[in-house]
Design goal:
Shape: elongated
Oligomer: single chain
Order of helices and strands: HHEEEHEEEHHH
Strand order of the largest sheet: 1-2-3-4-6-5
Helix content: 40-55%
Radius of gyration: 40 Å
Number of helices: 6
Number of strands: 6
């Protein structure tokens, strides 16, 4: 190839899975990703948003996720995410709920709802769990569903992918998106030597060798890089503010602790002073008692002396 192409860039991703000429690739991927969920394999799909992109010279191309429906009415939403961020799981849940709810037209009842599968390929860590494949289904603690065939959210964390000597079809697709930019510049590994992977590589070659497609790719890549840089800068700014806040709170806590120690020391000083005064009072009382006893003794001696003279 003339240029290395990263299939994770959304305009390339959309060309691979969201174009009419590559519908077989979408079917192949969906069957690999959802084979444990589907009662029957997907045979064909219809794209629900095939032509919703608009090109802009600054790279701000509106590239939506891929949505499709199969012959059974099941809905599939597939999205690539270049960067993971803290609120991404909430966005995943929201998107699934929106796609599920948008099925119904005015006048239709809930029985018209069909399973909705939201699939996310993420070039980052979304969960704290080990492994690259995470399937979230709507079931209770005993594995029972409140309603049949609701679908679910399926998250594939590309950076956590570890494969053995034998690469499954799903692992092959995940490796393709994770390492495709590097793989497209050399001979294909054995696991990629299947018609679907060769067809996907053909799409990468189109972006690499056709000038207008490559310019589109570069513009979009530059925009995504700018967006990622801005996000990191904002996160760094937020982190800096949080660090300053924590430092100020720590300083206040130290001041409060110092004040508490000062108050405690003052109280101890006051207690010691009171104890000293009480001891002095006891000493003075003892001295007065001794003086009174001495006076009484002198009085008694005087009486005895007077009595002896009489």
């Amino acid at each position: 190839m003339k240029h290395a192409i990263d299939p994770k860039v959304d305009c390339v991703f959309k060309a691979i899975f969201g174009s009419e000429v590559n519908l077989n690739l979408l079917v192949h991927f969906l069957n690999a990703a959802l084979h444990e969920e589907l009662s029957a394999p997907i045979v064909e799909v219809t794209l629900l948003n095939p032509n919703l992109e608009k090109n802009r010279l600054d790279g701000k191309r509106v590239v939506l996720d891929v949505k499709a429906r199969d012959a059974h009415g099941r809905i599939f939403q597939i999205e690539i995410q270049m960067v993971a961020y803290p609120s991404l799981p909430l966005r995943m849940i929201y998107n699934w709920a929106r796609v599920y709810a948008d099925q119904l037209e005015e006048g239709e009842d809930y029985t018209e709802l069909r399973p909705t599968y939201s699939i996310w390929l993420v070039n980052g860590n979304v969960t704290r769990r080990a492994g690259a494949v995470h399937r979230y289904r709507f079931r209770d603690d005993e594995g029972h569903s409140l309603a049949e065939a609701v679908g679910g959210i399926f998250v594939f964390e590309l950076l956590k992918l570890i494969v053995g000597e034998e690469v499954s079809v799903l692992e092959g697709w995940l490796l393709f998106f994770r390492d495709g930019e590097r793989l497209c510049l050399g001979p294909l590994p054995v696991w990629m030597q299947i018609p679907e992977m060769e067809q996907a590589m053909k799409t990468l070659r189109e972006f690499s060798e056709k000038e207008h497609r490559y310019e589109e790719y570069r513009a979009r890549l530059d925009y995504l890089r700018q967006e990622a840089t801005i996000r990191r800068d904002l996160e760094a700014e937020v982190a800096g503010r949080e660090w300053e806040r924590q430092r100020a709170e720590a300083a206040l806590e130290r001041e409060a602790a110092a004040l508490q120690r000062e108050v405690a020391a003052q109280r101890e000083k006051e207690v010691a002073q009171r104890e000293k005064e009480a001891a002095l009072q006891r000493e003075e009382a003892a001295q007065r008692s001794e003086q009174q006893m001495a006076l009484e003794l002198e009085r008694l001696k005087a009486l005895l002396h007077k009595g002896s003279q009489n």
